[in-house]
Amino acid sequence: MLGRVSDADLRLLRVFSAVVECGGFAAAQALLNVSESTISTHMHDLETRLGLRLCQRGRGGFRLTEDGEAVFKAASDLFGSLDRFQGQIATRKRQLNGPLIIGMPDNIITHPEFPLSAAIDRFYGRDNAVHITVEVLTPRDLERGVLDGRLHLAITPRHQRVAGLRYEKLLSEPNYFYCGRKHPLFAQMKRKLSLDEIAAAGLVGRGYISNFDQRFFKDAPHHATAYSMEASAVLILSGRFGGFLPSTYAQRWVAAGEMRALRPDILSYAPDFFMVTRTGAEPGLAAKTFHGDLRAAAAGVKKGT
């Protein structure tokens, strides 16, 4: 039975939380930088300390028990409280320290106005001891992470307004509909292709945004599904499908003759990207400072400074 929580207990709980977030022992190796056998030993030690069975492993994969789910939630609450305590003390001392966790979507770094790197540079120009973590997630997971307090802020497109979140526009990103060089419509540049023709030749859907291209193709079925821009590019380059990509991301393949945009006159849109923070919660000094650095970096990138 766990009595007073020690530093050793906190380390074991962090290992357990990492295993849960990664979805298993093997997947947590890279994050924790230890062997699977070491993780297994730590998990056994934690279960012994708690007197509870936390998870099951086997052919069916990794799965939390009911007790494991309860311990994971309690551990998440505990670590959140510790982070808030650290942030509050740092604020009182006017020090920049503690964790800073930022979320972003995949493959937006090719956008010339993406300000995150410049903001990080500004932030670390100050004397601070902040440990920064950057996570790449889907738009829904980014919003959910900010809402539940796991992320201090996120940069994401807004596909719907979520109550409890504040959105500050940073940039827009033009998207066009592309096909690969082997696609049957690639060479047909002399005539205007109909949307029905394009849809029938194979559409890539985005698994994390429902009906994102319905404005163009109405109820046409998707023939493949991707959960990242990189996955979309792989499918498009196969020559079997067409799909939307950010123009700056697709540019390398367009320049090499491996992709081209189909009907760019009508198959285009430019989603806005926002800095997303949680309303009704006072950020710690580190997060508040970074908010300002991100705003300043975004303005500076647009001006070319």
| CATH evolutionary superfamily of the largest domain | Periplasmic binding protein-like II
> How would you classify the helix and strand content by structural class?
alpha/beta
Uncertain spans: none
Rg estimate, integer Å: 23 Å
Major beta-sheet overview: 5 strands, mixed
Task: Characterise this structure.
The chain is an alpha/beta fold and 305 residues long. It folds into three domains: 7-75, Arc Repressor Mutant, subunit A, CATH 1.10.10.10; 94-171 and 272-303, D-Maltodextrin-Binding Protein, domain 2 (3-Layer(aba) Sandwich), CATH 3.40.190; 175-269, 3-Layer(aba) Sandwich (D-Maltodextrin-Binding Protein, domain 2), CATH 3.40.190.10. Helices cover 43% and strands 20% of the residues. The protein is built from eleven helices and 13 strands. It has helices at 7-22, 25-32, 36-50, 66-93, 116-123, 139-147, 195-200, 214-217, 229-237, 247-255, 285-303, and strands at 55-56, 63-64, 97-104, 129-136, 153-157, 165-172, 175-180, 204-206, 224-226, 242-246, 259-261, 268-269, 272-278. The strands form four sheets. A five-stranded mixed sheet has the order 4-3-5-13-6, sandwiched between helices. Strands 7, 10, 11 and 12 form a four-stranded antiparallel sheet that branches. α1 (7-22) crosses α2 and α5 packs across α11. The chain is globular and about 75 Å long. The model has no long low-confidence stretch (mean pLDDT 88).
